[in-house]
Amino acid sequence: MIIRTLLIANRGEIACRIARTARRLGIRTIAVYSEADADSLHVESCDEAWPIGAASARDSYLRGDVILDVAKRAGADAIHPGYGFLSENADFARACADAGIIFVGPPASAIEAMGSKSAAKQLMEKAKVPLVPGYHGDKQEPAFLERQANRIGYPVLIKASAGGGGKGMKVVEQPVDFAAQLASAKREASASFGDDKVLIEKYLVRPRHVEIQIFADGHGNCLHLFERDCSVQRRHQKVIEEAPAPGMAEARRREMGDAAVAAARAISYVGAGTVEFIVDAAGDFFFMEMNTRLQVEHPVTEAITGLDLVEWQLRVASGEPLPLAQDQLRINGHAFEARLYAEDPARDFVPQTGRLAALRFPTDGVRIDTGVREGDSVSVHYDPMIAKLIVHGADRTEALDRLSRALEATRVAGLATNIGFLAALARHPAFAAGDVHTGFIAEHEADLLPPAQPAGDIHLALAALAFMAARTREAREEAVRSGDPFSPWHRVDGWRLNDDAHHRLAFRDGEAERVVTLHFRRDGFVLDLPGGSMPVQLLAEEDGLLTVLLDGVRREATVIRDGLDYWVLPGAGQPDRRLSLIDPLLEAEAMAEGAGARFTAPMPGKIVQVLIEAGAKVTKGAALMVMEAMKMEHTIAAPADGTVAELHYGTGDLVEEGAELLRFEPAKG
Ligand code: ADP
Ligand code: ADP
Ligand code: MG
Q: Which residues form the Lipoyl-binding domain (predicted)?
């Protein structure tokens, strides 16, 4: 292979994943990193790592000039862009070529051809690839677009031409909403992509998202590596992907594969690419877009083909022909991928930031692609994906069973994640039946997002035992330090020397407060819990893994202490829970600070618009600020009539979750 040194212009799991293959092939790897990523896993995964700028992607991972300069200085002969960032930036691909460095991706012209969804559709129309009915021309006057929407028929979908990641996309159910949705889509599109051009499409109901992985080399060969079904989505973003697609007939697979290969050939494609189709209830398929890069969910294709797509990319970029021909490819079994995100399903999936106090995966029967380790942080600057879990089985049932088990054996603490939601999805009977469509999550929301239950007795008992385990350890350490290991003052089996020594612990459980009283017994404790009394015993504790006897039943569970937070992860299909120990001292301080109406950022993000001035009197419902988080706009509105007493942030400021945005004084009376 002519590539000897590869610079990986990305971060996180994909940078680690690319490094793994490169190293296996004996290629020297160069990482680049922002100030926020100096100690990250992707830096450690490479032979060398070069700093490229500040935390914000705009100042680091999107700086093509800086990255190219590093590539030259580090002696890289190729750059792999991963996905996101510069992967679909034609100017960057061209700049690499001009500098004599191989861009591991398609030629700049192919990126350009597919870069605009509208232009791509015009091309595909010519290549006779079926399209969803819609308008994808250049005219952008609102009145004209509205007429097009009426012609197409509601519901319609407005899409940013330059879009990706589900951003700048708005479903419009009825004509009265069109103008407002168009304006919003255009704002999101220009904020995310610097281009507010949109297209209008018929919005299909209960469709499937089925995409074809294609590969082409520089010798005129082009083939497909079958399909992936990515129908299970939330806000048009993929959650669980699988290959092959459930219920796919061989003839339809061939037709879709041929259409995808035709699409790639139409733009003289080279390298790995994905042609995304939307499939209606009748099974008819329509071109949606082509992603001219490695896809997040490529591992499911690797699992069913036994191939390494990054290796293929590197071979093709080196000028080698494709390693296999179409008739040498076979589907073996079934594979799933689940995307583990730092987000809170209980609060409309708002992205979470913070330290991963625990991150533990099962080791057998699952491939874990991740860019973080236990103790690392998920920051406000980048995508909140923590890991991808990939499983393979002889058939769909076996693979799905493995996925459920892998999700249930995963332990994450320190911030809210979608792990419980993913596990509920994997266990859902309709999912098991293969009845997937893009509205699946919305349709089964009640099952997938059950209303919050109070913490169970088991959670409280485990938190209390973890508290005692920590106390015992601290007391033992203190005794050793004091030089008198037998001093009665270091005993933790009771504060008082009377018969019923007990200790009262209070935990915050969401909004509620729960109390556990521990009664000390010779062989453990009796706990007074909301559901009654329970004899318990702590048999062992190591690194958060507790072995306990609860009511005589021996079991294991994980409880991770993170400051005052107790992340109780009971396993065995029981939900995870965060309980916060109420420290009476801290509570008193907080009460003393007094209450004013506080406006805190519901998630990390950026202030894109401030609509009022400090001191402004506003009426209930008035828009005060527009915050952008995960490239979507969120409007902060007045909860009542009142005055905006202080503004703490201005347009363009970045805010952390929980930051106070402004101080609001409700009108009296
Ligand atoms: P895919 O189509 O590959 O499954 P998605 O559409 O889910 O990817 O991802 C949305 C887009 O968000 C990706 O195309 C990529 O551009 C961007 N993206 C996702 N994750 C990251 C990340 N960790 N870093 C940078 N960009 C990302
Ligand atoms: P992105 O670049 O954000 O990935 P896509 O055009 O691929 O944008 O669309 C993302 C998702 O939106 C699709 O996977 C699908 O679920 C949904 N979608 C797109 N077009 C349509 C449509 N015409 N009707 C119904 N759903 C659609
Ligand atoms: Mg897409």
A: 594-665
DSSP-derived secondary structure for 599-660: EE-SSSEEEEEE-S-TT-EE-TT-EEEEEEETTEEEEEE-SSSEEEEEE---TT-EE-TT-E
Q: What residues are in contact with ligand 1 under a 6 Å CB criterion?
A: 12, 83-85, 164-165, 237-238, 291, 295-297, 382-383, 385
Nearest partner of 393 among 381, 403, 407, judged by Cα: 403
Residue 110 belongs to some domain of the structure? no
In-domain check, residue 140: yes
Residue 444 inside a domain? The answer is yes
The helix or strand, by DSSP H or E, that contains position 307, with its residue range, turns out to be none
Orientation angle between helical segments 117-126 and 250-266, nearest 10 degrees: 110
Residue owning the nearest CA to atom 9 of ligand 1: 165
Catalytic residues: 293
Asked if residue 454 has its Cβ within 6 Å of ligand 2, the reply is no
List, in order, residues 6 or more apart from 596 with CB less than 8 Å away: 645, 663, 664, 665
CA 165 to ligand 3 centroid distance, Å = 7
Residue 24 domain boundaries: 5-104
| Assigned token pair, 395 | 């058939």
Residue nearest to atom 12 of ligand 1 (CA): 165
Q: Which atom of ligand 2 is nearest to the CA of 117?
A: 6
| Chain segment 168-227, per-residue pLDDT in tens | 899 999 999 999 999 999 999 998 889 999 999 999 999 999 999 999 999 999 999 999
- Give the model confidence (pLDDT) of 425-476 as tens digits: 999 999 999 999 999 999 999 999 988 889 999 999 999 999 999 888 887 8
Pick the last residue of a domain from 538, 564, 587.
Answer: 587
Q: Which amino acid is at 263?
A: A
Residue 87's nearest CA partner among 41, 30, 18, 29 is 18
Whether residues 578 and 617 fall in one domain? no
Structure tokens at 153: 């028929």
Number of structural domains in the chain: 5
Name the packing angle between helices 108-115 and 90-98 (round to 10°): 170
- Whether 276 is in the pocket of ligand 2, judged by its Cβ within 6 Å, is yes
- Please give the C-alpha separations between residue 322 and each of 211, 226, 404, in angstroms, as whole numbers: 20, 16, 35
Structure tokens at 462: 């485990």
- Mutate which of 83, 111, 230, 632 for ligand 1? The one with the most ligand atoms within 8 Å of its CB, which is 83
Ligand 1 atom nearest the C-alpha of 237 is 7
Between CA 338 and CA 425 the distance in angstroms is: 10
* Protein residues near ligand 3, an ion, with CB under 5 A: 276
**Residue 392 above 70 pLDDT?**
yes
SS3 call for 125: helix
User: Residues with Cβ < 8 Å from 13, sequence gap 6 or more?
Assistant: 369, 370, 371, 385, 387, 388
For a substitution probing ligand 2, which of 167, 173, 209, 297 has the most ligand atoms within 8 Å of its CB? 209
Claim to verify: residue 261 and residue 161 sit in the same structural domain: no
The Cα-based distances of 456 to 347, 396, 514, 540, 550 in angstroms read: 20, 34, 10, 22, 13
Look at residue 396 and give its three-state secondary structure: helix
Ligand 1 atom nearest to CA at 230: 4
